[in-house]
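Sequence only, no structure available. Ideas?
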Amino acid sequence: MRDSRTVQEIHRAREFEAFVAGAGGRLLHTATLLTAESPADNPRARRLLTLALARTYACWDRLRGEDPYDRAREQLATRFAHYAWHEYVRRLYDALPLDRVLPHGRLPALRRYVVPERRRPAAAGPLALLTPQERLVLVLRLYEGVAEEQAAALLGLPVDRVRTLCDRATTALLRPPRARTTVTPRAKAAAS
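Reply:
I predicted one. Tokens follow.
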């Protein structure tokens, strides 16, 4: 009994290693696009991929003929959506004027529960201009080739909303905002 279980675990581990060897690079590139980091320096993308692959490995035996790449991509998209929401809430909380809202005596007591802000590398590349939701829809639709209906079901959004987000993101990438130029008044030419 013990030998058959270890043989099954070894077989499972080898199957998963083969899957990661084949699909790991593409999934890492997807995670890098989602986080809008530089491909050379992408710690958030690597962490996102590690968590998604760990979850995929945890349910590896329950796949039963299902495509493991689809499951890993689903975990990646779900984790990124949760990450983006928590990042939004953290930035919103940081923007609150706590010293004006709370009584003066309660502010120091509250500050000990606040997690200090972690410095993260700035997002780079053209995808950094997009919101996280636009980035997620654009990467799923254009890079991964997921149909609108599947992307909508994965994200829990209406199909029209996914279409709108994809169109808006595509437009933002194709027509980036122009840099503001200062207009200098021209000197009038002297009459001769």
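The radius of gyration is 24 Å.
Hope that gets you unstuck.
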